[in-house]
């Protein structure tokens, strides 16, 4: 989905969100409530500049508008695979972005993520997936790693992974599988503004993803492991 009609569906008329390259920033109203918008478009590859720009936008909200909710709009092909970005330490830039979002959360900013087009790899992990709750449109494409790449990393035959993906969401891409695992809290259909309003009003203050994954059968052991670690 293109970002322009998405904004019209999510927010009141007259939003102040602009696009600069692959970066979306600005403010909008949700039934009279002002929210900050930070996001990406054009299947953005997250390089050092874009990671810093997103982090700066988040920090500006924390500094200038205490408590204002932040909506993260996600459309990314993952981190930019260039020698220059690796030499500059793209992992640290993306970690910085994640830390800025965590700072916003600790300063009582509700942070809601929405995957509206594509979400791949590290670009997704340090944006929408790190929000208080992340949602997605049904037509969105989500995956952390393609099965051929997963086969190379895990040393498991691709044929075996393909077979496992039919019954185990951990090995399979797609929004429905990320819902089953708890990474995506719900899919938004119909009235997007109403669902955004409900999400803002019910933004979780604790991480529920492992519990959701257990309840939905997509991640059966994560919540149990977390509980055992806490008890220890």
Low-confidence stretches: none
**Number of DSSP E strands:** 8
- Which structural class best describes the helix and strand composition? alpha/beta
Mean pLDDT: 90
Proportion in β-strands: 15-25%
Query: Largest sheet, if any?
Result: 8 strands, mixed
**What name does CATH use for the topology?**
2-enoyl-CoA Hydratase, Chain A, domain 1
Helix/strand order, N-terminal first: HEEEEHEHHEHEEHHHHHH
Q: With helices defined by DSSP (H or I, 4 residues minimum), what is the helix count?
A: 11
Text of the CATH class: Alpha Beta
CATH superfamily: 2-enoyl-CoA Hydratase, Chain A, domain 1
Structure report:
The chain has a single domain (3-205), classed as 2-enoyl-CoA Hydratase, Chain A, domain 1 (Alpha-Beta Complex). Helix content is 45%, strand content 22%. Helix 2 (48-64) runs parallel beside helix 4 (90-106). The chain is built from eleven helices and eight strands. Strands 1, 2, 3, 4, 5, 6, 7 and 8 form an eight-stranded mixed beta sheet that branches. It has helices spanning 3-10, 48-64, 83-88, 90-106, 121-125, 147-154, 158-165, 175-181, 192-201, 209-216, 222-231; strands at 16-20, 23-30, 33-40, 44-46, 70-79, 111-120, 133-136, 141-143. With 232 residues, the chain is of the alpha/beta class. It is globular, with a radius of gyration of 18 Å.
Give keywords:
232 residues, 8 strands, 11 helices, alpha/beta, globular, 2-enoyl-CoA Hydratase, Chain A, domain 1, eight-stranded mixed sheet
């Amino acid at each position: 989905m293109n970002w322009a009609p998405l904004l019209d569906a999510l927010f009141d008329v007259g939003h102040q969100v602009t696009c600069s390259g692959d970066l979306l920033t600005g403010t909008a109203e949700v039934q009279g409530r002002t929210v900050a918008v930070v996001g990406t478009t054009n299947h953005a590859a997250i390089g050092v500049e874009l990671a810093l720009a997103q982090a700066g936008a988040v920090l500006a909200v924390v500094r200038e508008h205490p408590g204002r909710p932040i909506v993260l709009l996600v459309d990314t092909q993952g981190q930019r695979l260039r020698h220059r970005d690796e030499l500059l330490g793209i992992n640290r830039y993306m970690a910085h972005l994640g830390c800025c979002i965590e700072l916003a959360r600790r300063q009582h900013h509700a942070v809601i993520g929405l995957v509206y087009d594509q979400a791949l790899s590290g670009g997704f992990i340090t944006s929408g997936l790190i929000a208080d709750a992340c949602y997605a449109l049904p037509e969105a494409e989500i995956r952390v790693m393609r099965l051929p790449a997963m086969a190379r990393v895990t040393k498991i035959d691709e044929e075996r992974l393909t077979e496992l993906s039919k019954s185990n969401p951990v090995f399979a891409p797609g929004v429905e599988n990320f819902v089953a695992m708890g990474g995506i809290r719900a899919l938004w259909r119909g009235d997007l503004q109403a669902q955004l309003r409900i999400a803002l009003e019910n933004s979780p203050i604790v991480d529920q993803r492992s519990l959701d994954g257990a309840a939905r059968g997509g991640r059966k052991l994560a919540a149990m492991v977390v509980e055992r670690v806490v008890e220890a």
